[in-house]
Amino acid sequence: MFVLGPNRYGKAETRVVRVTKHGDAHHIKDLNVSTSLSGDMTEVHLSGDNAAILATDTQKNTVFAFAKKHGIGAAEDFALLLARHFVDSQPTIHRARVAIDEYGWDRRGGHSFARNGRETRTCVVHYDGEQAWVVSGLKDLVLLNTTNSEFWGFVRDEYTTLPETRDRILATAVTATWRHSGTSDWDKSYEKARQALMAAFADTYSLSLQQTLYAMGSRVLTECPEIAEVRLELPNKHHFLADLSPFGLDNDGEVFIAADRPYGLIEGAVLREGAPGAGPAWD
Ligand SMILES: O=c1[nH]c(=O)c2[nH]c(=O)[nH]c2[nH]1
């Protein structure tokens, strides 16, 4: 005998671009929306009875229809709107997860835009018919310090070759997610958290990327009382000193090889003491 385990289904990566036109002044929102629903899906899997299914095609259509009907403000608000709609309108759907990546555009004129080179803003919303959980974040925020980074005092066993260093480049591409303890001004909260991450990276005299990670997470919690927990994934984008001695040249920390892979991957969470439980926020 077998039993059906946890399952969910939805439409991944619906790319929706919403243009709002106020005369000649146009505004643009560019999202990648993934919806995922779960509920009474036992018969669907066991007997092929599809009566409980809100088709993934319908989920995709809803994204476009809501973009027209309601407009798009903060990604978190659009995600909450969709999640509540799917659960509240369908008796067979009990839980919704809506994840959104947002790409930024810089204005070049009234109706002209250039895709900006900034990080991607992210959010994931869960709704179970009663409560909503909101996780916001960013990915591909590339940061680099040319000094104020050391790495020494680590274990040396028979396989260790890494020399200790008192001065190195520290570089990473930040993936950060943060869990809100309630509703918020999502745009304001995002800018504060983003600034906190960058400021802590720049200000921390680093003895390891792990220490920098904790400083970054702590700074977000200090600056943003509405945030309960921060999770960080920090690839250590190694920069190795190039050996220029074959050319009779010295290299006192001026020319580096930017290595691609492998890379160190430092991951960790920083939580506010006594923060409310995460529920399904991270699922
Ligand atoms: O900041 C670092 N943390 C590590 O754990 C580590 N390991 C390594 O090889 N280099 C580094 N750098």
TrEMBL record:
This protein's UniProt keywords:
Oxidoreductase, Purine metabolism
Q: Which InterPro entries match?
A: Uricase
Enzyme Commission numbers on file: 1.7.3.3
Instruction: Tell me the domain of life.
Output: Bacteria
**Residues the record marks as active site:** K11 (charge relay system), T56 (charge relay system), H238 (charge relay system)
Q: What functional role does this protein have?
A: Catalyzes the oxidation of uric acid to 5-hydroxyisourate, which is further processed to form (S)-allantoin.
Q: What is this protein called?
A: Uricase
Q: Which organism is it from?
A: Acrocarpospora pleiomorpha
Q: What is the lineage of its organism?
A: Bacteria, Bacillati, Actinomycetota, Actinomycetes, Streptosporangiales
